[in-house]
Amino acid sequence: MEQTTCICIGRQLASGGRAVGKILAERMGMQYFDRELLDLAAAESGLSRDIFERGDEKRGFFASAARAAASFLTQGEVYSQPVGAARLFEIQAAAIRKAAAERDCVFIGRAADYVLRDHPRSLSVFISADDADRIRVLMQGKDLDANEARHVMEKVDSNRAAFYNFYSGKRWGQASSYDMCLNSSKLGYEGCADVIISCLNARNSAY
Q: Which of 165, 180, 186, 201 is deepest in the core (most CB within 10 A)?
C-alpha cells in the first residue's frame, strides 16, 4: 500500500493554524482532523467524548479526566488496562496513528507531530502570528476587550505548551521542535499554505 502523507500543525491561539490546515486539506485532498480527533478517540476506545473534551490539549486536566474515565471504559484487548492520564493520551495517539495509516491527513495540535515522529512522510509545522494580530482576532471573534483577549491568549497558549512539552519531551513553539515555523502575520493564511505545499512536494520527491 502506498505510504500516506501527513501534515501536523502546532499553533498559537488566533494565529490561523486551523484556517491554514483547512486550506491545506482542501487544496491537497487530505482529511482534516482538529476536534474530530476527540470523536475518533472516543469511537476507538468506547469512552465518552466528554472524557477527551475535558483534557483536550490541557496537561493538567488529563488527570481529572482520567479519574472520570474509569467508569466509562469498555473492555477490549487494546484498552483493558487501568486508565490514567498517560493512558488517555495513548488512546488519542492510537487514533492519530490509525487515521494516518489509512489516509492523507492534516492534524491540528494534540502533539500529532510527536505521535507521528516515525512516520516517513509526516511534516511538522508551527504557525505563529504577531500578538497585535492575535489580540485583534480574539477581540473580533469573541467580543473581548484587549486585556481580556490577551489573558485568554496567554492562558490557552500556556495550556498547549504544558501539554505538548510534557507528552513530547520537546518545547512547544521552539523552532528545533518542528520541520518549519511560519508567521501568518507576514505570509497570510494562503501564503503559509503555499510554503507548506512547496516544502511537502520537495520532501516527498525525495522518496
A: 165
Model confidence band, residue 83 (pLDDT cutoffs 50, 70, 90): low
Looking at residue 183, its amino acid is N
Q: Which residues contact 1 (CB under 8 A, 6 or more apart)?
A: none
Reported pTM: 0.87
Report whether pLDDT(142) > 70: yes
Angle at 45 between CA 78 and CA 77, to 5 degrees: 20
pLDDT computed for residue 164 by the predictor: 96
Instruction: Provide the sign of the torsion angle of the four alpha carbons 132, 136, 138, 143, taken in this order.
Output: positive
> In this structure, are residues 204 and 6 in contact, taking their beta carbons and an 8 Å threshold?
no
33 backbone dihedrals φ, ψ, rounded to 5°: -125, 115
The answer to whether 132 touches 17, Cβ cutoff 8 Å, is no
Name the DSSP letter for residue 4: P
Sheet strands side by side (includes 6-11): 31-33, 105-108, 6-11, 122-128, 180-183
Cα→Cα distances 42→31, 74, 81, 146, Å = 18, 11, 16, 36
